[in-house]
Amino acid sequence: MSSRIVVVGGGTAGARLAERLPVTLLGEEPHAPYNRVLLADVLAGRYGPEVIALPRPAGEPARRGVRVTGIDRAARVVHCGDGSTVAYDRLVLATGSNPVLPPLRGLGHGRLPAGVHAFRTLDDCLALDGLVRPGVRAVVIGGGLLGVSAARALATRGAEVVLAQQGEHLMERQLDPEAAELLRRHLVSLGVEVHTECRVRGLKVASGAVAAVELADGFVLDADVVVLACGVRPRTGLAVEAGLDVRRGIVVDDRLRTSDPYVHAVGDCAEHDGRLYGLAGAALEQADVLADVLTGGTAAYRGTRALTRLSMDALELAAFGEAVPRPGDDTVRLTDATRSAYRKVVVRGDRLVGGVLVGDLGPVGTLARAWEGDEALPDAPLLHLLTHDGGS
Fold it and tell me: What's the pLDDT score for residue 1?
């Protein structure tokens, strides 16, 4: 194992490596590494920030509040914003991703107006926590997993929440229209006003603070708080400036190596086999593979089959793979409207390629194992896959 492993980024992937190996972890945020997946639960008041802290590093404590400004690949040194340098034998870029800020009127190009926040970091979460109280008018822009989680958290705190989704239904990347409709109904039952196929044109700002959100059809939503949940973009600036191969993300091979064999990349910033994952499960799997690689092992990363799960009070949902069938695929659906339950699987040939479950998640363990293993399905009818309770 190399004696000097430097990891840039204290998110899920970087923290996992620091848990596995003695490394120098440089984190830009002032906080100790934490679980981003649980930020919505912090905003909802279910957990305090200390509860979502990740395990401490195996070696020296993480260096917090350290911004890496450049990489000297020839000298194998990283330069930090405080003027210090850190030498490495192997460098790991775990720089994560930045929230996408939509091109809205009134948003500006620098500092966001007061009351407007992304929902990506613990600082974002704490800032929103200080603004939320019963009766506050909050508009969440974006109906993906992050936007849905933020809307639910804000409604739990008593805010008057409007969720504006540009697409045809909520969580378009994971859910089909039927499952998304059950999710919409649940949000409405929590007091969230949901608008789909709704394009936001701009923000109205008064005295430096947001006052309203203007929709493309001219309708105006009063707002004290606006949450931007419009997706993320890999942070690749350091890699680009260092001359590494970057497409949408930092290009890596099956050993998580970049175009420089002494530099690796994992997590949201890494592009493997043309894919960006942006999922905690993929970040953890990549970090585990790289930990083996850096200790002389033979592990190789072959991609991640990640299951998305969301718990929203009385509603549970899980989604994996391709929820929309192709011509020739077999599809089985079970719907129980009285219990707001929905189960669907998509089978291509003898392989399970996707599924969505809302409500009782009893079969999800069996389905996930069949999908993750990419093995031929048993001869049992497809209906058995949906009704068998294999545990979760």
Answer: 44
